[in-house]
Amino acid sequence: MKKFLRNQYYKSVDKIMTNITALKPYLENIRKASISILLKLAIAVVIASSVVWLGKFTWKYLTDQNMFLVSPVTFSFETPDWATDKFINEINNIHGLKRKYNIFEEDLTKKIVAAYEKSPLISKVYYVERELPNRLNMKLELRRPAAIVMRKREKYLVDKDCVRIPEKFYKYPEEGGDPIYIVCRRSTKIPEYGERWNDVSIGEGISLLNYLKHNKIDKLLKIASIDVSNVGGRNKDGKIDVELWTKNGAKIRWGYPASSGQVNEPSNYEKLQNLLSVAMEEGADLSNMEYVDVRWKAPLAKRISVR
Question: In angstroms, rounded to a whole number, what is the distance separating the alpha carbons of residues 229 and 242?
Fold first, then answer.
């Protein structure tokens, strides 16, 4: 029995050894193939890395050339005819801008927009676009003088949005025009440049002026000032909220502002029609009128007394 088991054992070992010997060429082929694949993969990785590195190096070299440097003085935007040389120079040298930028710089347009939006001369930045090799095209809404706020003999320039703007960069009135004053005798905090007036009366004055300008009444009747000193008051002494004065000295009693919500107060449109009806009879410059009161269904008017 032991002899039989020993023979079976040796037979099994011989069979295993025979199978291993038969597999050696196959395993050798697998080893060689694996080495070849790994070698090719390593070469491919090295080549890919080299291409990426070379591409980055080449890109950096090309983009660092002077031809791709953009300066604020080369920024392109439409210059309005009312802009002064000081204004244009300030736009080209906005605080917060670097002297030069690379046209391919990351987030370049966002940086430019952020710098321009902080300027009191800029109302809105619509877009900033890159134009190769070294130009930026922009569309801006520039702040333009609309009136002068007169308060305690001091004068402050404002735009149509009631934002205070720096006088030194503008010429107001513009050539061929006359200044329009928003008169306010009430105490109020003076805003910084680029900030809106936090005063209801001044805001109402600018709103009315925008309405008159939209209908070209400011030039037709030669409006010189809008007095809003009594806006928001109790009017116990019968003072009128808003009064307009023409260049020739005629007073226009406008009454409550449109936003007051007064039930019996005519709308701005109705008041304007009343004013125009008097102007058609007496002349657009109202030079013979002491005052025109447009607060009623039928306007009241008084001519200058002639002795």
Answer: 8
- Token readout for 113 is 């927009």
CB 160 within 8 A of CB 210: yes
Helix (H) or strand (E) holding 151: strand 145-151
Which of 133-142, 150-159, 245-254, 277-286 shows the lowest per-residue confidence on average (mean pLDDT)?
133-142
- Clarify whether residues 138 and 182 are in a common domain: no
Report, as an integer, the average pLDDT of 17-32.
66
Retrieve residue 251's tokens: 């007073």
In 10 A of CB 112, how many CB atoms?
23
Last residue in a domain, options 17, 44, 63: 63
Q: Looking at the 3D structure of the chain, how many domains does it have?
A: 3
- 104-124 residue pLDDT tens: 888 999 999 999 999 999 999
State the DSSP string of 183-242: E--S--PPPPTT-B---HHHHHHHHHHHHHHHTTHHHHTTEEEEE-TTTTS--TT---SE
Q: pTM of the prediction?
A: 0.77
Closest Cα to residue 220, out of 146, 136, 284, 165? 284
Write out pLDDT tens, residues 252-278.
Answer: 999 999 888 888 899 999 999 999 999
